[in-house]
Design a protein that fits this description.
The protein is built from nine helices and 16 strands. The protein is an alpha/beta fold and 396 residues long. Strand 3, helix 3 and strand 4 form a beta-alpha-beta unit.
Length: 396
Amino acid sequence: MDEILKRIINFTDEINEEIIKIRRHLHENPELSQEEVHTQNFICSKLDEIGVEYTRTRTGHGVIATIYGHDRTKAVGIRADIDALPVLENADIPFKSRVPGVMHACGHDMHTAILLGSAKVLKSMEDVLPACVKLFFQPAEETVGGAAQMIAEGCMNNPEVRKVISLHVDPFVPAGKILLTTGAMNAAALEFQVKVIGKSCHGAHPDAGIDPLVPACAMVTGIQSIITRKMDPADPCLITVGSFHSGSKSNVIPDVTEFEGIIRALSDENLSRLTDELEVLCRSIASAHGAECEFTSSDGYPVLVNDDDILKVLLEASAEVIGAENVMTASKPSLGADDFAFFCEKCPCFYYSLGVAPDDAENYPLHSDRFCPDESSIKVGILTEVNTVLKLLDEI
């Protein structure tokens, strides 16, 4: 083992307990998307302790930090998302969330702590860095897509970021291992809203009004025909309705029925086609029932595609620090969406999964009120981030 590798491993061991404490502080003090004020301040305080320069984003509550290498014109980036979810925690742990109804149920506390650990290791090695490392502590992943906001503010410039990596905890991968997915890893996605407008009347006299509930129900049941009859069955895509609201009294036909959902596809082209097909379906059904239809959709996330060249570097770098037997690969994508995809549009990037499934406790999925990742994986996250970045710095 060369001296640099020993230096990484030994220093990561030294700071492990400190980084676990940081993670627990973040877990106890979660903040929702677009409200990450304390989290931003805490990150900045830790960067001050480490001696890493940073700026706060003007939009949202993000932090962009830079560790300077010999060449100050180019950099490799590492991203961590920092926001929590509106979930009431029910995990039986001593550092449970102190904020009622808010929880780090997606592991962003782990991501942030790991990046602070990586910052500490990389700062201690700045004498050997051939170029710079930029650290993106990104807000609002769960809502408005804070990655796009950070990029719009210029986080990829001065120095120029040529490659970016990031990780996400995975409760279905054993702690101590990582999973690398080739090609498309996450779907493109956008949310939609449908408002069906009828005419209210007494439930005993439906002929005196226009019931918006009937066409809205037909829309929801008809949506699956788009997937099964309009799209290539070998190219996965989804339309999910997650919210449906109509009326307020059992004997009153309402004026309006509303529902909303999300569309997912593994190509931007399919996402656009699904959106168009859904709008045509909803408007046609509404018209057939004599109702009106308002269809809107929000800006979505693009497909997240991993870079093949970075994959090779990650494989080698990770094998050196955690052993080749702990590096798993897969080609099956997820239809989940993540705004790290915006970074992938700007330069070669790679998003990988960090195993956090415990050996000796029941496992819960992401967004569960009992989600409880194995903290031994923090060390694995730091080691793989740092060693990969060091190798990428030699290539840019």
